[in-house]
Amino acid sequence: MRSLNFGQDSPRDHFDQLVESVTRLKNSPTEIGLGQQAAINAWSLTEWVFLHEPEFCEGSLTQYANEVKTLCPELALLQDICNAKKHTRIDRYTPKVKNTERSGGFSRAFSRSFKQAGLYVIDAQEGRFLLDDLLDAAVAFWSNRLSDLEL
């Protein structure tokens, strides 16, 4: 069988890559490339699930992506991070992300009461989110979704 993904051709394979990329980011929480790759892995599962399980995903890929973002709003922010990595600007839709920041901050092991070291995503309503937390939500969502679809 022909593969353009080195044999990693199922939604489960891509979920495993997501988990691995999130683990790497947690070990180096201010590494921008790791954060971007984890966001790409999280968002790309939308298309992988849609294409591999069309009987569970009604309508078009765009409709399915909107459903996914409704069920897991964190994925809307991760979509923006993913698209910003691939393109110089996002102009096919209005992005939810207003800005991103990298912060040295304190280690999570020290205390979560202080600003944490990591990559931050600021949304249009000025909400500030650690990229790690957005990715944790995406991992939980995809884990449940793949289990529901028996993938």
Distance between the termini: 20 Å
Write down the secondary-structure element order.
HHHHEEEH
Fraction of helical residues: 40-55%
Poorly predicted tracts of residues = none
Main sheet summary: 3 strands, antiparallel
What report would you give on this structure?
The chain is mainly alpha-helical. The chain has a domain at 11-92 and 130-148. Helix content is 53%, strand content 11%. It has helices at 11-27, 32-52, 61-71, 74-86, 131-148; strands at 97-103, 118-123, 128-130. Strands 1-2-3 form a three-stranded antiparallel beta sheet. Helix 1 packs antiparallel against helix 5, helix 2 (32-52) runs parallel beside helix 5 and helix 4 (74-86) packs across helix 5 (131-148). It is globular and about 45 Å long.
Task: Give a brief outline of the structure.
By secondary structure, this protein is mostly helical. The protein has helices at 11-27, 32-52, 61-71, 74-86, 131-148; strands spanning 97-103, 118-123, 128-130.
Task: Please supply descriptive tags for the structure shown above.
single chain, 151 residues, mainly alpha, 3-stranded antiparallel sheet, 5 helices, 3 strands, 53% helix, globular
